[in-house]
Prior knowledge:
Layout: H1 3-10, H2 25-48, E1 59-60, H3 61-74, E2 81-82, H4 84-100, H5 113-119, E3 124-133, H6 138-147, H7 149-155, E4 162-172, E5 175-187, E6 193-195, E7 203-205, E8 222-223, H8 231-260, H9 267-287, E9 291-292
Parallel strand pairs: 2-4
Antiparallel strand pairs: 1-8, 3-5, 3-9, 4-5, 6-7
Amino acid sequence: MPLTRIKHHLLPHPIHKKRATLLRSKAVLFYTLVVLTFLTFVKQIPTVLPGVLSYASNITVADLLKYTNSKRATAGVEQLTVNAKLTSAAKTKADYMFKHNYWAHVAPDGTDPWSFIIDQDYDYLYAGENLAKNFNGSKEVVEAWYKSPTHRENLLSDKYTDVGFAAVNGILDGYETTLVVQMFGKTRTAPAQVEVKGTDQNTVTRPAETTQTVPNVHISTPVTALHPINVYSTTKLVLVSFASVIFALFALDVWYSKKHAILKFTGHSFAHMVFLIFAISAVYFSLGPGRLI
């Protein structure tokens, strides 16, 4: 192919007064179709090959504790101590969600969040739960909890003295996922309600019993992705690269057109560019990680 033909795939044609081939309306519509097809493809992979795509991240329980206590220190609230029984309850809750393929405070079979705490013989005065999934790091999880009013209420509550964390990998809805469970507690000397903060709130009252002393442990277990294809980072790389090329071509087209007084941009072309941007953004946000409940 002659060099001049290649050139005008990238630059406006000075004689025919046409936009660069790669930026014409048909090309922009084609790019949009490719982006939407990519979204559909990524969404369908888990139904065919569960676990191939991953939302799993590198999350450290020790960091979850550090950032949680940092927020509490800033608020002037007593630091939390990792409790072995709450940690076990959080781990059991995470495993239960993977086993039954759900993500909620209350399981489809009606299992309440505090049931996991009771099963560990943790005699609570107060208890609470925060959940998160698909975050990239420990700090992002805690920041998200802090920015959510209902989750922040748990995070900074002075009712709690103990905390348990679990950051567990597994397959949920076909994706390799990292679920983070944070369970708060305080051993009791009188009847009280358990509070679950999030989008679905529930309470339960227990009769008075004898308060138990529970040993504390420090957990520092890294959680890393089990599969190499991380859907968020891969999608971000693809979309950022794709968008960068398109916008670079657009900038080159504007510069060359102004320099040689070749072409005026029409509202029709601008509309296609806006639609392309919308399609790219839709893919990015629909596949983005980080959700709370």
